[in-house]
Amino acid sequence: MIRRQFTALAGGALVAALMMGAAPALAQGKKVTVAVPGIPPIFSATIAYVAEKQGFYKKYGADVELKQFDNGTAAARAVVAGDIDLAWSPTPPVISQVSNADVPLVAIYGMPNPDWVVGTTETGKSCKDLAGQDVGVDSIGGARSVALRSMLTGCPGVKIEDMKQVALGSTSGPALIAGRLKYAVLHLDDLAAIDAQGKKLNILVAMKNTNPTSHYLTLVVRKDNLAKNRDAIVRTVAAMVDAARFMQDPKNADAVAEAAQVTGHNKAVAKEALKEFLAIDFWAAKDDGLPRDKITAVSQLMKKIGAVKEGKEPVSYENFVDASVWKDANAMVK
What we know:
Blueprint: H1 2-22, E1 31-37, H2 46-53, H3 56-59, E2 63-69, H4 72-81, E3 86-90, H5 91-101, E4 105-111, E5 117-120, E6 134-137, H6 143-151, E7 164-167, H7 172-178, E8 183-186, H8 188-196, E9 202-206, H9 207-210, E10 217-222, H10 223-228, H11 230-248, H12 253-260, H13 267-279, H14 292-304, H15 317-320, H16 323-333
Helix pairs in contact: 2-11, 2-12, 5-14, 7-8, 8-13, 11-16, 12-13
């Protein structure tokens, strides 16, 4: 009897051991907190929620908590303070932050192609008409604010000081639809939502035309935290790389749109927006999304427009990007 019980217990232990070996163990028990910009999150953050909904974090043994922030600039500051581990943050302000204060942030994954436009529901307007107007942004100095300043380089004679920026977080699109203001810095999903309301949007200026070498978002981490928790962070990135590839497949459009409803859009709008984002290769699926030419161009632009202080030099690509994290994560996905 005792022998049979021992045999059963031993067999059960063997099965449990085999089951544990079948899936990656959580990386050293470390929970990784990832900040996504916007409350509700902006559409770019869909990648993080697809990874969650499709079980990719668990697949790669990553214990991940997603945390929403008012904007990506605030999220980057939280990473610097050590309050969170990773943040999807706008590249231009982060480069300015690193350049001006030598903060110990490094970029490990990116979204290289900005979708910014300045739009209005008014007809017969041009970028010259922005002067003297309220313009919706996320926050003063935030991603939309910096994008506005950058895009105005394509509108000679008009400066950002000529208009009033209205801080609306991620709700510039809804504010435009509701008629609370007439001009706003918008994303492609905002355009899809406006179109779904039967309203016509007049695009005054677009980042792809004024600053084609700009870069949108970077996933940033403190250098010391990366050194301490590298395995957990690599696994987290692997999950998002897998999510980016999942999102490319048209067969997965419904699942992606379902996850994207966290952004506040209904499934139909999310599905239409997804097509537009995929058309510009928004989520990096084949590389780390941190091309040297774009990162360097953003650094130079921040210096040109005064976002990098006098006497300071913009951070170099080598000091801003750690390409090894994505390489190791990609090796896990293959």
